[in-house]
Amino acid sequence: MSNAVANLGVPIVLDIGTYATKVGFAGERTPRAIMRTLMGRDTSTKDWLFGDSVLPVIDQARIHKPILDGCLLDEVMGDFKRFTEHVITSVLKVNPADHPLLLLVNGKGVGVEWDNIAVRLYSRLNTPALCILRSGMACLFALGLDTATIIQVGAGHTTVAPLLNYYGTQRTIPRLYIGAQKDVTAILHGQLVKRGVLPDTPGGLELARQVKEQVCYTSLHFEDELKQSEASGNPCTTTASLSNGGVVECGAERFLGPEVFFTPKIGGHDLIPLDGVIVNSMVCLGFYRLQHGDFRQSDDERTAELARHIILVGGHVNMPGFAERVQHGVAARLPGFTVSVSVPEHHDHFEWHGGSLAAEKGKIHWLLKDDWERAGKSYQAATISGFQPGVDRY
Q1: What's phi and psi for 107, nearest 5 deg?
Q2: Per-residue pLDDT tens for 253-262?
Q3: In what side-by-side order are the strands of the sheet with 39-41?
Q4: In the chain, which ranges are continuous DSSP H helix?
Q5: Where residue 235 falls among pLDDT bands split at 50, 70, 90?
Q6: I need a surface site. Which of 81, 113, 121, 173 has the fewest CB within 10 A?
Q7: Model-level pTM?
Q8: In this model, does residue 289 exceed pLDDT 60?
Q9: Cα–Cα distance between 291 and 297 in angstroms, integer?
């Protein structure tokens, strides 16, 4: 860490996900706050609401999103700035001008110029130093590994990042447009709306999320379990309690939504299942060889190393049966390889945890506001993200 950065306050670590936002300080094991990535404007008072405060008026408020399906895009940059300012000043309760900011983004989480993000953070929030770090790299740092396959299951999409010696490319990081909220919760919500149990409103979707977190699971033998359920008339096998005091009975809905990751057509998607995406990403190693001219290991040896370290992160990955189903599916597609799938501690905020460690140990490259203002745009794009120079970034 440079002397200029060391003289500033403790770096802020910020991870804005599609569903939840995590914020805290470098060196801490857990975020200071975890809040819903949600903002809206009360139609009667015109006041801005953030996080859980939106929920009581969610069916009446005009909803805004600071990030779309895990991506920072031009059309949401105004909301991104407003949300970020609220998180730092009102939730973390510090002055953004006093602390460097480490912003974590998904493997394909930026659909806007780096400079456009920097303008908001340097000029509008007066951030003194900035680093934008890919969350897969943060996970590697937290694991103490340089090679692993990082599966990030988000609310709106799932990203598979096979990283070799800290290296990955956009082309080898596929994004599966299936997510825990956008698909699993939505399918469950649709089933319960069809039964007349929940309303077809944003508030009803929130209640469906509560049901999902209490009773849903991933079936290891989906077809067999579905046939058994249909043969017995889809009995209501369990109940879930709602925050409004209601109770919902669930049968096959418990495992129908979670199956969308492995049978995408359930959600109307013409996509490769998650286990297929994982295997395809691990065997596409040509870009790594082209970049590094590294022929010390065969493709099979590299695939074997990636298969031994498949890491699941995100809130959904702790759903009963999910990790086992991924393990079974990948092993079936990679006969002869040892496949190991694990869910680390702090899985629901693991990217944030890795970013906190990296910032504490001085393993990232900070770009000072003064340097950014003096530098040309090409320099800004090259230096605004990643670990220390000399370590490959993706």
Answers
A1: -55, -35
A2: 999 999 999 9
A3: 48-50, 39-41, 62-64
A4: 3-6, 77-86, 114-118, 135-143, 186-194, 202-215, 222-231, 253-256, 274-283, 286-292, 299-308, 322-333, 350-360, 369-374, 377-383
A5: low
A6: 113
A7: 0.85
A8: no
A9: 15
